[in-house]
Write a structure and sequence with these properties.
The chain has 288 residues and is mostly helical. It has nine helices and no strands. 34% of the residues are buried.
């Protein structure tokens, strides 16, 4: 066994991946916060160009520049203040400078990314499936939070996720490549058909095109056979959370309310990724 072979041991690998996952979760927080703003800047520049105007001047803004800072006082986050989970707990969820509250969303994202990656490593071991599952977890976390906050499912995330699913299945990480390609096509078309059926029936748009692409990515990873389970579970979870939101609002309905399908699709995709086959076997046994 090589000098680093001990990292692949079943008792070690999940813990190593957990640490990497927590760090990845810290970066995912940056993606969730900045990517929509970056896209908005691009759209504004494109609109200005179409109108024959000069794009507005602005400071460089991407996933790495500028340094993260407190939105209340502008305090630059130091390395010690950016340790996943630990820093938030030590600071008691407050800025070290102005004591403004730091959202619990940040440690939640870090924890989800770390635990999801560690579970992938424990479930699949030192295989390509672990890498694929870990990337699937991280991408869906970012997509779910961005969609919930902004109603966007950026192509910058959904389209690479489709290609990652197809690439890992070239070697059959989850399903044969034929099932992965069919799953990507079926995933897109299934929600596309629902979209047009709803629009023709009501004259309104029930979902965005980002949902089609995200479902295509789920199909690229899991193949076409698990797509019915994904759609059923996402619809059930969506109804459950929608009912809870209505209950929290005490039955009040606001016309501006929009149903964001991305988070529920992410939850359903993760359930199908890790437990889809046992669920399907249980279902076929019950109906058989």
């Amino acid at each position: 066994m090589g000098s680093l072979g001990w990292l692949a041991q079943p008792s070690v690998l999940p813990w190593v991946v957990l640490l990497f996952g927590l760090c990845a979760g810290s970066f995912l927080n940056v993606v969730i916060h900045r990517l929509p703003k970056m896209l908005e800047r691009e759209w504004r520049a494109e609109c200005a160009a179409l109108n024959g105007q000069e794009p507005p001047k602005s400071e460089p803004y991407n996933l790495f520049i500028p340094r993260s800072a407190c939105p209340s006082c502008g305090h630059k986050i130091t390395a010690l203040e950016n340790v996943p989970l630990v820093s938030w707990l030590v600071l008691r969820g407050k800025c070290s400078s102005c004591k403004a509250k730091i959202s619990a969303k940040y440690p939640i994202v870090e924890l989800l990314a770390g635990v999801g990656a560690a579970y992938s490593a424990w479930r699949f071991g030192p295989t390509l499936a672990t890498l694929g599952a870990t990337l699937f977890v991280w991408f869906t976390i970012a997509l779910a939070f961005i969609d919930q906050e902004t109603g966007l499912l950026p192509d910058d995330l959904t389209l690479p996720l489709v290609w990652i699913g197809l690439l890992v299945n070239l070697w059959g990480a989850f399903v044969p490549i034929q099932d992965a390609v069919t799953g990507a096509v079926a995933g897109y078309l299934s929600l596309w058909l629902v979209y047009w059926a709803f629009k023709l029936a009501t004259g309104k748009e029930g979902m965005g095109f980002g949902d089609f692409k995200m479902n295509a990515a789920v199909g690229a990873f899991l193949g076409w056979k698990l797509l019915p389970l994904v759609i059923i579970v996402s619809a059930f979870v969506g109804l459950l959370f929608g009912a809870l939101q209505m209950f929290a609002a005490r039955g009040r309905y606001e016309g501006s309310f929009r149903f964001h399908f991305g988070p529920y699709l992410a939850i359903a995709g993760l359930i199908a990724l890790f437990w889809g086959e046992p669920i399907m076997r249980w279902y076929l046994y019950r109906v058989g």
